[in-house]
Design brief:
The protein contains eleven helices and twelve strands. The chain has 254 residues and is of the alpha/beta class.
């Protein structure tokens, strides 16, 4: 398997830098292209494999009866569309946790009624006025298995009736020793989820690796990284590919 790429040009801000990208392959394409164009060498070793959950889809009537459906990620949107083929009720508000999820919803033919503000996450979404007055509403949260409980717990406290639809699960891919060794050569590490960071730590936990520059997309991931012993951590402005790219360039050229 080819798991690293290199742009052969010169005089680029990332020339000479080796960047470890840990995103799932399908979600890493645009980011790796941006990094390659600026001279980086890319080591692509996804720390999460997204696998569909094989379970019974809720009755169509149950989905149509929801006052609100919240999608917590692009994967949630993609796997929801694979399992739910019927049209949704025009009276159901469709909610994206952030702009990237909203774009995915539009690409998959779903309207977007509410979008969480940057930085994307449960905290930002819960601050929106539309998420405050939810008493008595039926709300379905579309997510992966064993996701965060903050969103559901807070909405329950506000009086909403919550139901989960878990449409995918996150697994740690298996790698040969050569691939792990190659990942350890990176100067810069990009991690976009807590699960990805924990999986990375499970595979590579030596002290030298913890002293390399770690790029993360939220303060929550940063806190976990600090607890795991990482020493040099930068947080992006949001979860977009552009924000991640800008953060890499900014910290590389300091």
């Amino acid at each position: 398997m080819k798991f690293w790429l290199k742009y052969m040009g010169t005089n680029f801000p990332l020339a000479g830098a080796t960047v470890l990208v840990t995103r799932p392959k399908e979600q890493a394409i645009a980011l790796t292209e941006m990094l390659l164009e600026k001279g980086a060498e890319i080591v692509l070793v996804p720390m999460i494999e997204i696998v569909p959950v094989i379970s019974e889809t809720p009755d169509e009537k149950v989905i149509l009866d929801q006052d609100m459906i919240i999608f917590v990620s692009r994967n949630a949107v993609t796997h929801f569309k694979k399992r739910v083929m019927h049209k949704l009720s025009s009276g159901t508000k469709l909610v994206a946790i952030g702009s990237a999820t909203a774009r995915c919803m539009e690409e998959k033919g779903l309207r977007v009624d509410i979008t969480g503000a940057a930085p994307a996450g449960s905290e930002s979404l819960l601050e929106l006025p539309e998420m405050l007055a939810v008493a008595g509403l039926k709300i379905m949260i579309v997510r992966g298995e064993t996701g965060r409980e903050l969103l559901a717990d807070t909405l329950k406290m506000r009086g909403a009736e919550i139901q989960y639809l878990e449409v995918y699960k996150r697994c740690l891919p298996s790698y040969e020793a050569e691939e792990i060794t190659r990942a350890q050569t990176a100067d810069i590490i990009i991690v976009t989820s807590v699960t990805g960071l924990e999986n990375l730590y499970e595979l590579i936990s030596d002290n030298i690796f913890k002293h390399k520059l770690l790029i993360v997309v939220s303060e929550r991931i940063k806190k976990v990284a600090i607890n795991l012993g990482f020493q040099h951590i930068a947080v992006t402005n949001d979860v977009s590919d552009t924000a991640i790219f800008d953060c890499v360039v900014e910290n590389r050229t300091r």
